Amino acid sequence: MPLIALLPGDGIGPEVVEEARRVLAALDLGLTFEEGLVGGAAYAAEGHPLPPATLALAERADAVLFGAVGDPAFDNLDRALRPEQAVLGLRKQLGLFANLRPARLFPGLEDASALRPEVAGTIDLVIVRELTGDVYFGEKGTRTTSAGLRQGFDVMAYDEEEVRRIARVGFETARGRSGRLCSVDKANVLETSQLWRDVVVAVAADYPDVALTHMYVDNAAMQLVRAPGQFDVIVTGNLFGDILSDQASMCAGSIGMLPSAALNGTGKGMFEPIHGSAPDIAGQGKANPCAAILSAAMLLRHSLGQDAAADRVEAAVAAALTGGARTADLGGATTTREMGEAVLAAL
Ligand code: ATP
Ligand code: MG
């Protein structure tokens, strides 16, 4: 019986994770659930945003369904104790190096996109972002230049194994979709990107069924808003992926609709909505639970190999929307619970 660790966290996290849990439970897959404290909720109860019991639960579970962390009440804590540290701690503990962010516009939500409706309707892609390397984790510091000026520096570095393993996730993801992979880099000016491109090309030999293209990141940013329909799967580094995935999410509509996965190559992963704890609407029953429910669908697909069940959940979300359910972020008055009910009814 697969064990799912539920880490609801703060703000709207518990509200949306509960709807996702109900959807998972309704599938009759014999899943078991165990809840853990994380974020501000964990700090309040145990004095740490990621208590040992939560780490142990995440280790033991087959997959983690995460809500959101962040609570303005804890903004003045030392950095190491802030709720947001829990996400970094879990990523590190579980060795999560690949971040998958699908961006897809559900039918009827064209108005929620930052793009013109006819362009928005064509967006259906996945960004595979590397999570453990790049400029965020290279050597960094400040020094004084020969002219006596203060200078900050952050080293952008990738080794070939780091690129190889994320490239494989990109190819596998493309293989499971329509078989097109676009590798995004800045190989005309960056050494890391030269290496990136060499390694991606080498890995491509193992995936003759996937059509590989390369694009410079500046062009990719432009193409994402000009003609997003050209993309199926994008694989890119940590920095470029950070920026492009936020850009793609606004093209795909409300922040309340978008799921994500963080994977470590063993099938195990942590699945969470891309939105935060939204303290401004917490406890009011206004949060859109679809991002959490679609994260649960990704969990079924990537960690449990339950592709058919994942398809059913995604189709049920689409059907609920087609049936007219709209939470406040989508311009309606459907509550969190009612949206969950609409998805359950469609299931
Ligand atoms: P973080 O730093 O954790 O990303 P944030 O403050 O940047 O948090 P969110 O918590 O995602 O961002 O909130 C941004 C805005 O989007 C808020 O106005 C919030 O109410 C809204 N929002 C976020 N998630 C949802 C949701 N599921 N349903 C409806 N509105 C949402
Ligand atoms: Mg944010």
UniProtKB/TrEMBL annotation:
Its EC number is 1.1.1.85. Its cofactor is Mn(2+); Mg(2+). One of its GO terms (biological process) is L-leucine biosynthetic process. GO terms for cellular component: cytosol. PROSITE patterns: IDH_IMDH. Residues 3-343 form the Isopropylmalate dehydrogenase-like domain. It catalyses: (2R,3S)-3-isopropylmalate + NAD(+) = 4-methyl-2-oxopentanoate + CO2 + NADH. Mg(2+) binds at D218, D242, D246. NAD(+) binds at G276, S277, A278, P279, D280, I281, A282, G283, Q284, G285, K286, A287, N288. The record marks Y136, K186 as: Important for catalysis. Gene3D superfamilies: Isopropylmalate Dehydrogenase. Pathway: Amino-acid biosynthesis; L-leucine biosynthesis; L-leucine from 3-methyl-2-oxobutanoate: step 3/4. One of its GO terms (molecular function) is magnesium ion binding. Substrate binds at R91, R101, R129, D218. Catalyzes the oxidation of 3-carboxy-2-hydroxy-4-methylpentanoate (3-isopropylmalate) to 3-carboxy-4-methyl-2-oxopentanoate. The product decarboxylates to 4-methyl-2 oxopentanoate. Homodimer. Belongs to the isocitrate and isopropylmalate dehydrogenases family. LeuB type 1 subfamily. NCBIfam families: leuB. This is 3-isopropylmalate dehydrogenase. The gene is leuB.
